[in-house]
Amino acid sequence: MTLFGAGMMLDYQTLLISLGVSTVCLLLTFLGTWMARRQDGFLLTCVTGLAFLVPGIFSYSYYTEVPLQPVAILCCSLMLMGFATIYGASRQFRLGCSPVRDAVRCSVLAGAVTVTPILFGLDGLGFVGLNVAAAIILFATAYEYWLARAEAPGPLLGMTFLYAATAISFVLCASAIAFQGQWVLGQAPDNWAENLNIGVCIAGMTGIGAMSLMVHQARLTEFHRKESLTDALTGLPNRRALFEAYEKKSFTHEMAVVVFDIDRFKGINDQFGHAAGDAIIRLMADELRDCVGLTMVSRLGGEEFAAVIRTAAPGYAEWLAERVRRHFADREIRVLNDTIRATVSAGIAYGRSEGSDFDTILRLADLALYQAKRSGRNRIELAKPDLMAQVADNRSLA
Length: 398
Prior knowledge:
Layout: H1 3-36, H2 41-65, H3 69-95, H4 100-119, H5 123-147, H6 153-180, H7 192-228, H8 239-246, E1 250-251, E2 256-262, H9 265-272, H10 274-290, E3 296-301, E4 304-309, H11 316-330, E5 333-335, E6 338-340, E7 344-350, E8 356-357, H12 358-374, E9 380-382, H13 385-397
Parallel strand pairs: 7-9
Antiparallel strand pairs: 1-8, 2-4, 2-7, 3-4, 5-6
Helix pairs in contact: 1-2, 1-7, 2-3, 3-4, 3-5, 4-5, 5-6, 6-7, 9-10
């Protein structure tokens, strides 16, 4: 081997070691990030994939110096298992499914294509199989992130590009071996495509790692945003979510707001305890959630709920509210040896033909609810025209 050739091999070894070290650093970064929020299984799957790739890369580095058949089988198997697991992580990211089946299936198929020729002494053909299998898996991974791009367009498009670019570099490696007809090598492949592949992998590893963390942070931010808009007890949108959705919308005569309030709720808490009160609130939430026709349902706080109806013909909101009232009165819960039933009152307010803001309609529905309470509870009331003047007077005094 010439000095230049030795120098090239030394450079290739250095690049392989650099790739291995970069992969270790990325693995530790992902692991630390996952440990801070263990609900995100996507990162843990990525860690598992990298845990296969690290020994795969270092064993391949050893194979370039000691080209033994068992070492070739080991490094190829580990690298393919790593790529397959990373593909499983991309499916898990997009669909929320378990990555195990996809990872195992890809590993077995790719391993068979790669290891079988090596066992028969056709190591060159085996490395062609390795590169083709890796390219297919990486293209499939890129496609999964492409399909998920709406969640975080910038980083996910970047990941799509980097996975695809890395896949292309593996295609070039396979093409270089196949073009030269080197079906039996007796050593690690050594050509321009291999050097290019290592460089692309190092760059891709760095970029994919950074963008994966960006996507994770975007998901974490979205999780906290949704959490801040969700009532913890019932899982319904809370008051803030309701106002974010409708405070800037104009309510016409075809739209309505219904405010529900559980009757004598304090007495239920005092007599049966807060656990019973929470059960009654969840029961009411389930009733509203199951009611077809309500556009959005929200827990305003305590025992009070609000529902928005976007398309409400005259009398439709009253019919829906009455159905909820009647069904809720028929339901019961068991607390220890006691059977508890509760009733609910509702106030309804329609928008105006010229349009009215959400806050005004909500106040009207609230005033109609108070009328229902004063009239004996377990009933519904429709906001009367005189209530509009009362709301206007209250605003002028504010």
